[in-house]
Design brief:
mainly alpha
């Protein structure tokens, strides 16, 4: 195979030096280091199988099934392009199936659990979205930082900012398209200003490619400041609501002040969230669904309740739906059954709020056991003892306590603990399924010879964005758009300060003179410019629309993302000049 030709640029700084100073080109470095798997299509067919088996970039998303190996070791060995496209079509259908599985996991476990936690702690939609849902959406970004603390910061900067851009464009745009709503101005301006300040500060400290501890340490305080501000706003909104109600009572009956009534209605939307009946939008009486029957003993109907709880198909939806929906329910039912055996359901819409005594006791053991196994932690040992033992002993203690201190006919007072457990387990399961989806996308993109830049930029964003996209869309569709919209800000505001703070501080501590050398990558400033522009113009757009989150604003947000991808491709093929490099046109061709 012939050696590819690369370009090396000369940077002449005539004010400070008389000789040319050669510096590496970021796009060349990124291509060699990250996009190794994209070289497979430039190799002879006989070499491709061995390459995809040994090249680390071809295996970075591998979890269960090796789609890449099957493509290049079996399918392409037939020499027929028709067989290639048939296999890629099958992968696309399989990817759609995995998305359906993710939808079931989010809709039945994660989203109801988030709602239960928010309602129990009397949170508003915006408060819950900015905190618990935002943290859940941003947890995936933490894996990016803690996987390899000594790694280069190019992937960190590109991945984190791509996730923020994906959340603000695709996720927030779809939420506005599904459920337009009135935006409470102070909270929207607060979230936008915080995210603008965070991204601008990170860009500022990394712009000179040198970061010390004095610059990285404030990142740890950023999210704490955001949480304090959110808490203060929640308290002020409740006090203001009480004050407006008091003023309205002082007015004559039937007269009222229209302006005060409008203010009160606006503030009530930011009050304690109401639980809505599934698929109807009306307010649910949560006390009515708290107990499905009256048991004569604490363990009455124990096994019957267990068998009814592990039914993977919703009977009410099955009876009222068409053949297409029934087919999809039957197809995904094996995965739903698996999730029911691993993760407790906590849902106000279900009888007993989803409480099933025997099933919940079983999930205390099965959920963590499954996660430890599939996460390849089965060989982990501490002081010569397997990690299973460290979980087994406290799990058995909890199971015994649940058995003696709970009933089958009503959820216990500590049901909130199972709600938190459900959210954590379902979040990990979402991560496992989402990584499988990413490997399918990576295989299809590589085999169809998509641009390496397009593949990497999208996958870095989708790695943490697929789960948040499905969760936020489901919540918006069920009547919680304010929670979903606030989470689009809360996710990046949670993950970015931590991932950059940990990585930059570690590199500074382990570097000479306590100063870390950092890089943004060839697309770093391009992503930042799109994100900054989007946040600024979207904020003013909603303000000029009289605080109405309209569908047109959602369309604008969504269109920003393909514009960004188009600019990334134009920069890669040197149709336009990238933001990150400023070289002269004097080039030395190197063979």
């Amino acid at each position: 195979m012939a050696n590819p030709s690369f370009n090396i640029f000369e940077n002449f700084n005539k004010s400070n030096q008389s000789q040319p100073h050669f510096q590496r080109h970021e796009i060349l470095t990124k291509f060699v280091h990250i996009d190794g798997c994209s070289l497979v299509d430039y190799m002879p067919i006989s070499m491709r199988c061995h390459f995809v088996k040994t090249e680390p970039d071809c295996l970075k998303f591998l979890r269960f099934l090796n789609y890449m190996e099957f493509m290049y070791c079996y399918v392409q060995q037939t020499g027929s392009r028709i067989v290639d496209w048939i296999y890629l079509s099958v992968l696309l259908v399989y990817m759609f199936y995995l998305f359906q599985v993710l939808g079931q996991l989010m809709g039945k476990f994660f989203c109801p659990g988030i709602n239960y936690i928010a309602r129990t702690f009397r949170m508003s939609q915006s408060f819950a979205g900015a905190t618990i849902l935002g943290i859940a959406n941003g947890v995936a970004g933490l894996f990016l930082a803690f996987a390899d603390l000594s790694a280069d910061t190019v992937g960190l900067y590109t991945g984190s900012n791509s996730f923020a851009l994906f959340s603000q464009t695709i996720v927030a745009g779809i939420v506005l398209l599904i459920r337009p709503f009135h935006v409470y101005r102070p909270l929207h301006v607060r979230d936008t200003v915080f995210l603008l300040t965070l991204t601008t500060y990170i860009e500022y400290i990394m712009n000179d490619q040198l970061v010390d501890l004095y610059e990285s340490f404030p990142l740890f305080l950023f999210y704490a400041a955001f949480l304090v501000t959110v808490g203060i706003d929640a308290v002020l909104i409740r006090k203001l609501s009480k004050d407006i109600r008091r003023k309205l009572k002082l007015l004559e009956e039937g007269v009222g002040d229209e302006e005060l009534r409008m203010q009160l209605e606006e503030l009530q939307n930011e009050g304690v969230m109401e639980i809505l009946v599934k698929d109807s939008g009306s307010v649910l009486d949560i006390e009515r669904t708290r107990s499905a029957f009256e048991g004569r003993s604490p363990n009455d109907n124990l096994f019957r309740q267990f068998l009814e709880s592990i039914n993977p198909i919703d009977r009410a939806s099955w009876e009222t739906s068409g053949s297409c929906y029934r087919f999809m329910q039957a197809v995904v039912s094996p995965f739903v059954l698996l999730f029911l055996l691993l993760c407790p359901r906590v849902d106000y819409n279900l009888p007993n709020h989803g409480w099933s005594k025997l099933l919940n006791m079983f999930t205390i053991l099965s959920g963590p056991f499954f996660i430890i196994t599939v996460s390849r932690m089965i060989t982990w040992k501490f002081f010569g003892v397997s990690i299973y033992v460290y979980w087994l002993i406290p799990a058995i203690v909890v199971i015994v306590l649940v058995y003696f201190f709970s009933r089958t006919d009503t959820p216990p007072v500590y049901h909130i603990g199972f709600a938190c457990f459900s959210v954590i387990v379902s979040l990990i399961l979402v991560r496992i399924v989402a990584l499988e989806v990413l490997y399918v996308i990576y295989t299809v993109g590589t085999a169809s010879q998509m641009s390496p830049t397009l593949i990497n930029v999208t996958l870095q964003a989708w790695e943490g964005g697929i789960g948040s996209l499905i969760a936020n869309v489901i919540l918006a569709y069920r009547g919680y758009p304010r929670m979903s919209f606030a989470a689009c800000y809360g996710g990046p505001l949670f993950s970015m300060p931590l991932v950059f703070g940990v990585r930059l501080s570690y590199k500074a501590i382990t570097s000479q003179n306590r100063i870390a050398v950092v890089h943004q990558g060839p697309l770093g400033i391009t992503i930042y410019c799109h994100l900054f522009t989007l946040l600024l113009f979207s904020m003013f757009g909603i303000l000029f629309a009289r605080d109405q989150g309209r569908k047109s604003i959602g369309v604008y947000r969504i269109l920003i993302y393909p514009c960004f991808l188009l600019m990334a491709l134009l920069e890669e093929f040197e149709v336009i000049h990238g933001h990150n490099t400023d070289h002269t046109d004097q080039r030395v061709q190197m063979d």
